[in-house]
Protein: Cellulose-binding protein
Amino acid sequence: MRRRVVLPALTAAAVTTSFFVAVAPASAHGYISSPPSRQANCASGAVSGCGDIVWEPQSVEAPKGSFLCNGGGSRFAVLNDDSKNWPAASVGSTVTFHWVLTARHATSTWQYFIGTTKLAEFNDGGAQPGSTKSHTVSMGGFTGRRTVLARWNIADTQNAFYSCVDVNIGGGGGGGSTPPPTTAPPTTPPTTRPPTTPPTTQPPAGGTWAAGTAYAVGDVVTYSGATYRCRQAHTALAGWEPPNVPALWERL
Structure:
């Protein structure tokens, strides 16, 4: 059974203590970050009105065998809403899908579908993956705008994790974006969403983003000519550059 850890709201006192909050591994899992899955587009702000999936892109868990983007579970039904303006990544006839895994569950198989047509299956035989996983998948002659459903089937439970990726096959490229960092960032959200609009006074500036620096909520940094505000207190690591971790940094 999954356990959830309730984090304190990000008040000034909570920010001070946020470095000492332990996150249980069972509360985090995985999702496709590149090309951006529907939950990744929600987490980055590319699609609005997504609800809790903004803070839990890694938590789309449901029984194995579903062809729905939310796995047919009771949560995250917004991922099944094809009327939303989901961005479609331009890809070629093969696509490399990159997963960020925030809990490394023993794995039976990874499966990729368009509709009910299975494009590929990768058998891990119960092995535990690393913090990231990549698969190169042929699009099987499909063209145009399609939705690829990916299933990460867990070896020792009846559940799988689901990720839907909207693609435009034949639009060029082989994946559409840069692979994710080799170390997965923390994605467990606070119980209260931090503000997404600038405060009336300028927040403290953090200067240029640098690995090894401790950042507090509201710190503002620059990186590659863009400005970002810290969403969650953390100590930066190489691979957690602001464009790579929208759960930690909001672009201004």
Observations:
- The longest strand covers residues 144-154.
- Confidence is low (pLDDT under 50) at residues 1-27, 173-180, 199-203.
- The radius of gyration is 18 Å.
- The first helix runs from residue 12 to 17.
